[in-house]
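Person: Please work through this fold.
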Amino acid sequence: MKKVLEVNHLKKYYHTKKEEILSLKDISFCVYEGEILSIVGPSGCGKSTILSILCNLIPLSDGAIYQDKNYKIAYMLQEDSLLPYLTVLENCFIGLKIENHLTEQNKEYVLSLLDLYGLSDFQNKYPNQLSGGMRQRVALIRTLAVKPDILLLDEAMSALDYQSKLKIEEDIYNIIKKEGKTAILVTHDIEEAISMSDRVIVLTNRPSSIKNIYPIELQEKNGPIKNRSDLNFSKYFNIIWGDFNEKI
């Protein structure tokens, strides 16, 4: 598989008036084309910090990141962040407007995504007229509209109720695979990580390093809902849960 992103010995310090705080101690991993890679770990261990560094929202303190220059990264935040005064379609156009790429061809691409993923009838609705799951699908289409190669998903399903969460996991998984994207998913949900991912990274407590990286080898790769019933699913859950309970 082609390597599209490599993180080598990443460190991140935060500074206050009184002290220097080490958040990320030593983070190294690779990302391969077409895979979904999940990052899990204890609350506050710096999972989202890694994504923020990868998309240049905050600087790294030490280490290096190597990225295929032909690959474009887009970040989907935990909250859908849809603008309430814009319609679904207008929200989906925001990234293209910012990049000055709102061409007729790109407009047609967005319309095709809305149609493909069941939102064409809602393109003139406003965010407060949508369910939580539909809002997340709109946020994903807005992210896909700029045609990124690598998606960074930061707790993208955490704000949803369990039933909606399962449904949007299925939607996001299918969209990523159908569109041929590479994704890095940050989540606190071990089941979500196993059911959606090709590999799972487990972080230690802060200051964080990588405790383990697990290739997820299920008997038959399906969507996240069916993957949860795979015979190997509980094996991976117990192993990763064990990592959490070793006071990582």
Q: What stands out?
A: The radius of gyration is 18 Å.
